[in-house]
Amino acid sequence: MRCRYERRPTAALQGHCGRSRRCPRQSRRARPHSAGSARRNARGVVGEWRRRARSDRSRSSCPARAGLRTHGFVQDNRIRAAATFEGDVRELIVALKYHNTRRASVPLATLLADAILAADGVVFDVVTWAPTSSSHRRRRGYDQAELIARGVARKLNVQATCLLRRHGSIAQTGRSRRDRLVGPAFRAHRAARRRRILVIDDVTTTGATLRSARRALRAEGAELVVCWAVAATPAR
Questions:
Q1: What's the pTM?
Q2: How confident is the model at residue 15 (pLDDT cuts 50, 70, 90)?
Q3: Across the strands, what pairs with 224?
Q4: For 113-153, how does the pLDDT look when each residue is reduced to its tens digit (9 = 90+)?
Q5: Other CB atoms closer than 10 Å to residue 4's CB: what's the count?
Q6: In the predicted model, what is the mean pLDDT of the chain?
Q7: In this structure, which topology does domain 11-232 adopt according to CATH?
Q8: In degrees rounded to 5, what are phi and psi of residue 202?
Q9: How large is the C-alpha radius of gyration of the chain?
């Protein structure tokens, strides 16, 4: 049976470059089930994004041309997400976080930078990130939020600096919603004082991590703190 999204693309499946997106049902079927398939899926999406960027320099920063769905999801006045955690965005984040596909951070950073430029007229002094737990960083060998944040900083031509330290090693992933609402504890560096700061994270569910990061930075005297995640988990 033919999918209804193939017959009649809706506005919700349109990227900001005007091309209809891939059927979300097919995206669910294509979700990776192994490290190898995750890396292959991520390589395919990254490769397509790079090919389109080379073929059309005037729109090279538009990840929607490579199948990344953008929604401008807003959790509250100062916490936003560029997309929902599904389809190609989900595959790229999973590959980056769990399968050591670091180059997946490139289209994710571009997607996020485009959303920030389209939504905010703020000129930031610095870009930072909500650091992952120490146990996850040791296991992966890197912090995925840092990779994305540094990519966003390059796009925005702003300095990227680590301004937050995380207390405790408990990650948000796998915790109940009630526990997630508490959020991790952060301590901000004094360099945050009187700065206009953009905070980056990969995925937000309840917004607790970014709210906790914002509180720490404001407590240290930051002038303005705006928080963005690449993706937000769909409401259930």
A1: 0.71
A2: very low
A3: 196
A4: 999 999 868 899 999 999 998 888 889 999 999 999 999 99
A5: 11
A6: 75
A7: Rossmann fold (3.40.50)
A8: -85, -55
A9: 17
pLDDT band at residue 85 under the 50/70/90 scheme: very high
Separation between Cα atoms, residue 72 and residue 83, nearest integer Å: 6
> Tokens 């996020």 map to which residue?
112
Whether the CB-CB separation of 78 and 225 falls below 8 Å is answered with: yes
Question: How is residue 113 written in tokens?
Answer: 């930078």
| First and final C-alpha spacing in the chain | 27
Position 206 scores a pLDDT of 87
Rounded distance between C-alpha atoms, residue 20 and residue 12, angstroms: 9
- DSSP of the chain, one letter per residue? ---HHHHS--GGGB-TTSPBPPPHHHHHHT---SHHHHHHHHHHHHHHHHHHHHH-GGGTT-GGGGT-----EEEETTEEEEEES-HHHHHHHHHHHHS--GGGHHHHHHHHHHHHHHH-----SEEEE-PPPHHHHHHHSS-HHHHHHHHHHHHHT-EE---EEEESS--STT--HHHHTT--EEEE-GGGTT-EEEEEEEEESSSHHHHHHHHHHHHTT-SEEEEEEEEEPPP-
More confident residue, 30 or 53: 53
Cβ atoms 231, 90 nearer than 8 A: yes
Residue 52 has pLDDT above 90, yes or no: no
Torsion on CA atoms 173, 174, 177, 178, rounded to nearest 10 = -100
The angle formed by the CA atoms of residues 92, 93 and 94, to the nearest 5 degrees, is 90
